[in-house]
Write a structure and sequence with these properties.
The chain starts with 35 loop residues before the first helix and ends with a helix. The chain has one domain (18-122). It is 57% helix and 0% strand. By secondary structure, it is mostly helical.
Length: 123
C-alpha cells in the first residue's frame, strides 16, 4: 500500500468520469509554435501550479477528506477531480500540439513504395 508523507496509508477514492465530462474542453495547441521557448515556459508554469497543490493535498489527507467513509470526503473528491481535469487537459494539449506541429512522416510511404516495387520486380 502506498504511504503518504505522514506515514499513514493513502486512501483511494474511485474516479467516475461522467461528472468530469462537462469540465473538459477540446485540446488546444500549447504555446506559440513560432516561439520555441513558449512551450517550455507554459509547461514549467503548469508544473509550478501543480506543485503549489501539494500542501492542500497533504492537508486534505491529514483531515481524512480523502477517505470515502468520511462525511467530508466530497471536498477531497472535488480537489482530486479538479487535479485530474487539469492534468488530463495538459496531457491532451501536449499530444494535440505534437500532432499538429509534426512534420509529415514519409518513411511508411517510402517503405510501402519500395516493397511494392520489389514485389513487382519479382513477378
Amino acid at each position: 500500500m502506498a504511504r503518504s508523507r505522514s506515514s499513514s496509508p493513502v486512501c483511494h477514492i474511485s474516479v467516475h468520469a461522467a461528472p468530469l465530462v462537462g469540465k473538459i474542453r477540446p485540446a488546444t495547441i500549447v504555446g506559440d509554435p513560432l516561439k520555441p521557448d513558449d512551450l517550455f515556459r507554459q509547461v514549467m508554469a503548469y508544473l509550478g501550479a501543480t506543485c503549489k497543490q501539494l500542501e492542500p493535498l497533504y492537508q486534505l489527507e491529514k483531515e481524512k477528506k480523502l477517505t470515502p467513509e468520511n462525511e467530508k470526503a466530497g471536498e477531497g473528491r472535488a480537489f482530486l477531480d479538479g487535479q485530474l481535469v487539469k492534468g488530463g487537459q495538459m496531457l491532451g494539449d501536449l499530444w494535440f500540439s505534437a500532432w499538429q506541429q509534426a512534420t509529415e512522416d514519409k518513411y511508411l510511404i517510402r517503405q510501402l513504395t519500395d516493397r511494392q516495387a520489389a514485389s513487382g520486380e519479382k513477378k
